[in-house]
Each structure stands twice: as structure tokens, then as C-alpha cells.
Design a protein that fits this description.
This protein is mainly beta. The strands form four sheets. A two-stranded antiparallel sheet has the order 1-2. The chain has a two-stranded antiparallel sheet with strand order 3-4. It is globular and about 35 Å long. The protein has one domain. Strand 5 and strand 6 form a beta hairpin. The chain binds zinc ion (2 copies). One zinc ion (ZN) binds next to loops.
């Protein structure tokens, strides 16, 4: 399942959707072309929209939102 990573360029910080095969690999931001390692996936809570980072190896697992406690996949 593809996951979302955040560009590590402080002037960009855009979200990129990458294939799960690229977990831990070097990826290139579609916007600014900065190369960075896809280590952390960004997950957004469907209830309160809080964003959290999880290791990309766990990107498809259920997580609990630290803000509202919603468990989602
Ligand atoms: Zn970027
Ligand atoms: Zn939440």
C-alpha cells in the first residue's frame, strides 16, 4: 500500500505518495527534486485530521491517534 512521506527540504515540506517498496529507500520529491530517505510515513487521523509519523514498515498497520484516541488503518 503506498504511503505518504514528507519532503525533508525545509523550504518545501510537501507530501509525496510513494510505493511501499520504497520504504527505507532514497526517494525524490516531486516538487523540489530533493532526494531523501523514505523512513517515516505520515498518517492522518480520519477523526481529527492530526498528522503523525510512523515507521514506513508499519505504514499499513493500525495506529491510535495520540490526540483523540481513534484507532484507524
Ligand atoms: Zn520537496
Ligand atoms: Zn485523532
Amino acid at each position: 500500500m503506498p504511503f505518504i512521506v514528507q519532503c525533508e527540504n525545509p523550504n518545501c515540506r510537501k507530501y509525496n505518495l510513494v510505493e511501499d517498496a520504497l520504504c527505507g529507500q532514497s526517494v525524490e520529491c516531486l516538487i523540489c527534486k530533493t532526494a531523501f530517505r523514505a523512513d517515516n510515513a505520515i498518517r492522518a487521523c480520519p477523526q481529527c485530521a492530526a498528522k503523525m509519523r510512523v515507521p514506513c514498515s508499519a505504514a499499513a498497520q493500525r495506529v491510535q491517534c495520540p490526540k483523540c484516541g481513534t484507532v484507524f488503518q
